[in-house]
Amino acid sequence: MAEASNQSTSTSSPAPLFDREEPLTADTFIRGLWEENPVFVMMLGMCPALAVTNSTINALGMGLSTTFVLICSGALVSWLRNWIPKQVRIASYIVIIATFVTVVDYLIQAISLELYAALGAFIQLIVVNCIILGRAEAYASKQRLLPTIVNSLGTGLGFTLALLSLGTVRELLGNGSILGVQLFSDNFQGWVIMILPPGGFFVLGAWLLFFNWRRLRKERRMTEQTGVIANAV
Amino acid sequence: MTIEVELQPPPAATPTWAMLRTLGGIAMISGLLVVVAYQTTLPMIAEKQRILTERLVFQVLPGAVSKRDFIVTEQGALAPAGEGIAGDPIYAAYDAEGRLKGVAISGTGSGYAGPVTVMFAYDPGCHCIVRSKVLKSNETPGFGDKLDTDPEFLKNLEALDARLDVTGTALANPIVTVKHGTKTEPWQIDAITGATISSRAMGKAADQAAQRAVPAIQRELTSLSQPN
After folding, report:
1. Does B29 map to a domain?
2. Within 13 A of A204's CA, how many CA atoms are on the CB side?
3. Between residues 143 and 202 of chain A, which touch chain B (CB distance below 8 Å)?
4. Between B34, B41, B45, which is nearest A99 by CB?
């Protein structure tokens, strides 16, 4: 009897995402931007998020490079998903990701040598970025091509957005400029620590604090209005 | 505490050839993509590199309109730049009339946060370094990056003595950085207060660049003076 009721509940509620193919919806795209933002929510890709966000252009370059690798590797993994045996999947994903990182490495050199020099080893380190391998393993390997591309684009833009929110604040406070354009008068004394490594931690901490404060405020308002404690077990 | 293990049916065996086929196929796609990307971007990267080098050379040698690239080989000889020649590149720059404006040389010294690479303009007429431009540095913003901006410090590099000794194989006086306010000789660099280690890196870079390139430049001055 208990077994039967268990079966009935499992058939009535949809199976978890990792077990079924997802239809293409707006949520496929938006999820990566906000709800599952790689930096602010999932806390992934911290190494480039802290290291190369000392200016807006570096943040943008890094974000877009990662997005390119995410989309291309996701698409190829999704396309080949039925041909990749489980035993060799990690090796296959890593080779696919490394290929697109090499391509993006050459592309950035061809676009701007200054940007390439500023990003340094972090372009090559995209190979071991957990956001990309995570997307390949958890999403692209199980989903159809189009949802994978859309989801990768959303995640990539979410990552770029997070990097930009660090990069613009750090450049503005540390250098008084955004994208190299001076916004304050010559008397502005840059807050140098913001463009040094500790600045990355300060600004990331401040953003997380802000998002948590907003979430808690929203929950409190909901409790006041409805009397129901959000997320209560 | 109990750990529940989900019982699963034994997985179907994957044929060996399927694994080999997948990895081999992916490696082939990878090879193809990398080679195409490399071949396509190679001329673009080379062109970017050429424009960047030219801009930097003309920046340290204002008034120059053309340049010739040379290599100082391990043996200290000067050879026209070309493929397969190893050594340090130097750039002879000429003005509109084809006169030698100076030679751009570069050197590296270790600073507070890694190596500092600097390009210097060497004037063979006055046997001295007349200008500098930091190419690569990780020095602390606000302190170490003054190497390129501090007007008082840059005065050191307007006529930095790089005369050769009687043998013509090394500098008569090695270029050194001295403590702020104690510069007495034209081959010394007066350090920036608060950025002594970065200033020392500049001195080391200038000394390294001059020790390597100046003997070759002075020896081959006649051929260097001709624009083509």
Report:
1. no
2. 23
3. 174, 190, 192, 195-196
4. B34
User: Between chains, do B41 and A106 touch, taking CB under 8 Å as contact?
Assistant: yes
Report the sign of the C-alpha dihedral through residues A60, A66, A68, A74, in that order: negative
| Interface pTM, i.e. ipTM | 0.83
Whether A4 is covered by a domain: the verdict is no
Does residue B98 contact residue B227 with C-beta atoms inside 8 Å?
yes
A1-55 residue pLDDT tens: 344 444 444 444 455 555 678 888 888 999 999 889 999 999 999 999 999 999 9
Please answer yes or no on whether A113 and B49 come within 8 Å at the CB atom: yes
Average pLDDT, chain A: 88
- Asked if B142 has any chain A CB less than 8 Å from its own CB, the reply is yes
Domain span holding position A96? 24-180+190-232
* Count: domains in chain A: 1
Residue B121 lies in a domain: yes
Q: Which of A88, A92, A103 sits opposite B34 (nearest CB)?
A: A103
A230, pLDDT greater than 70: no
Structurally, how many domains does chain B consist of?
A: 1
DSSP classification of residue B100: E
Residues from chain A contacting residue B34 (CB–CB below 8 Å): 99, 102-103
Residue B145 resides in a domain: yes
Q: Does residue A152 contact residue A79 with C-beta atoms inside 8 Å?
A: no
DSSP code at position B171? B
The answer to whether residue A19 sits within a structural domain is: no
